[in-house]
Amino acid sequence: MSAVIQEPHIFIRPMREGDLAAVFANERAAYTHPWTLGILRDCLRVGYQCQVAEQDDMLVGHAVLSVGAGEAHLLNLCVAPDHQGRGIGRRLLRRMLRFAREQAADTVYLEVRASNLSARALYESEGFCEVGQRRGYYPHDLHGREDAVVYAKPLL
């Protein structure tokens, strides 16, 4: 007899003002230099596409996308550290790509830390290609600044 292990259901929905404390907590847990609560609030206020991933009434990830002038920019994709490696980031990314297509964007851009190999592998596996670098883009505790790798994905 073999056991069947069922993964918990992940529900992706629009971010609400009441989610900001939990979203900010995930940012602080996942990143050495997280977005501020004010930045997250401003993203909601200006109408960016903001989504959260929820599991068992707990927010385990979020994503923020801006769309304009025929292109989209994935500004943030974050999964709580103890929930990483379970496909949540991929599901959030695909939701954002679908939204960008619905808004008639022809390309999605993003930046990622050069050292974030797991995120880079995710983006590349979803069809993003490296199109450039931004020198010293991210703050880094040990080295002062870290380069960003710029990725793009055509949506045609």
What is this structure's SSE topology?
Elements: E1 11-14, H1 20-30, H2 37-45, E2 49-55, E3 58-68, E4 71-79, H3 88-102, E5 107-113, H4 117-125, E6 129-140, E7 144-154
Features:
156 residues; 28% helix; alpha+beta; Aminopeptidase; single chain
Care to describe what's here?
- The structure is a single chain.
- The protein is an alpha+beta fold and 156 residues long.
- The chain has one domain (11-154): Gcn5-related N-acetyltransferase (GNAT) (Aminopeptidase, 3-Layer(aba) Sandwich).
- 28% of the residues lie in helices and 39% in strands.
- The chain has 4 helices and 7 strands; from the N terminus they run βααβββαβαββ.
- It has helices at residues 20-30, 37-45, 88-102, 117-125; strands spanning 11-14, 49-55, 58-68, 71-79, 107-113, 129-140, 144-154.
- It is globular, with a radius of gyration of 16 Å.
- The mean pLDDT is 93.
Describe what is shown at a glance:
By secondary structure, this protein is of the alpha+beta class. It is built from four helices and seven strands; from the N terminus they run βααβββαβαββ. The chain has helices at residues 20-30, 37-45, 88-102, 117-125, and strands spanning 11-14, 49-55, 58-68, 71-79, 107-113, 129-140, 144-154.
Helical content class:
25-40%
Which ranges are low-confidence, i.e. pLDDT below 50, for 5 or more consecutive residues?
Answer: none
Terminal Cα span: 47 Å
Count of distinct structural domains: 1
Record the strand order, biggest sheet.
1-2-3-4-5-7-6
CATH domain class name: Alpha Beta
Number of helices: 4
Largest sheet: 7 strands, mixed
Structural class: alpha+beta
CATH superfamily: Gcn5-related N-acetyltransferase (GNAT)
In percent, how much strand structure appears in the residues?
Answer: 35-45%
Look up the CATH topology: Aminopeptidase
Query: Rounded to an integer, what's the Rg over CA atoms?
Result: 16 Å
**Oligomeric state as shown:** single chain
